Amino acid sequence: MMDVQSKLRLVLGSVKDQASISKAMIYRKDGYLSDIEIAILRATSHDEHPIDDKQLHEILFLVSNSSPSSISIPYLSQKISNRLRKTKNHFVALKMLLLVHRLLRGGDRKFEQGFRKSHLNGHLEILSQHHRRHHHHHLNHNYFLHNYASFIEERMSWFMNQAGKLEPQYDKNTTEIRLRGLPKLQLFLDRVLNCSSVLDIISPSDSLTRAALHNILKETSQVYNNFCDEVPILANSFFDLKDHAVQAQALKLLKKACRQSCELSEFFHKYNRIVGSTSMKLTLKFPTTKIITVDHVLVMEQYVNDNNMGEVSSSISMVDDDKSVIGHEDSEVPEELTIGTSSTTSLFSCKLETQISTEWVLFDD
């Protein structure tokens, strides 16, 4: 039940909304652009109701039908940034972030490109000073606001391809092509996982936070499918990597993949238990694709360690031909651990998992 203080805040917020809308309607110095500002104010009012689809479509319609778009999209971005920066109200701030997220997903390709360009040019600021000041405690709603804003910042570097799927802008400076895709996917998933702690404090009536989590995890399912494709490719080519620095980086990525897979599964199940159980529309299914086990990672780590020891041993005993040969042989991939050298050998085959388990028991002894 709403207390007196909450009711008072809601009434004052409503008065502020009406005053802002009336002011924009009276002055209308920007002509059709003022209609965009009014639509933003209506969509991000001081109440707890989620943004209505009708309000979102109105904003998209006004921007898309205002010519030229090179003016209307930066104008939209600036108005969003100004409202996000000035507000001290949690509901308004969260609605603004929800609006940005939905605009990224709801517009056509031309609008999406223009919106992302506005962000790159500084017209659209997501992480306001308000969010930076209030993110110190991990169990409060301001912390979630900061993490959701960080997620949207990362989401800005992704775009919808022609198939309607999310695709990142990859780092073109990465020399090893097999290490290019996974770091970007893992950064996205890190931003998602940072939002998970809000489930410990979310209330049954908090429809805004529930809507935000639903939007985040809905997109995460798609990114996770790409993640499931990238991890086996890197894992199965691990023993073919000749550069030890690249191999160490690959091992680091695979360790992180193992951890993220478990944490994401826990996040989805917890979300469905707390949020999805209240509404079938909010229930989400987590992809059950097997990624990589701890045993797989341990074998790879042992191989890298043995390789490094073999190199040290070889350099110390260079004067002794026999020892040199032994050092070289030690750096070879053991036959039973040759995971990625054949296209018919899979890291996730049952046979291979049995071998890894047996070998690791021997290591422990």
Automatic annotation (TrEMBL):
Domain ENTH: 28-166
InterPro entries named in the record: ANTH_dom, ANTH_dom_sf, AP180-like, ENTH, ENTH_VHS
Keywords, ordered alphabetically: Cytoplasmic vesicle, Golgi apparatus
Main subcellular localisation: cytoplasm
GO term, biological process aspect, one: clathrin-dependent endocytosis
Intracellular or extracellular location(s): Cytoplasmic vesicle, Clathrin-coated vesicle; Golgi apparatus
GO CC term, one of those recorded: clathrin-coated vesicle
Superkingdom field: Eukaryota
Alphabetized Pfam families for the sequence: ANTH
Positions in coiled-coil regions: none
A single MF term (Gene Ontology): phosphatidylinositol-4,5-bisphosphate binding
Name of the protein in question: ENTH domain-containing protein
Lineage of the organism: Eukaryota, Viridiplantae, Streptophyta, Embryophyta, Tracheophyta
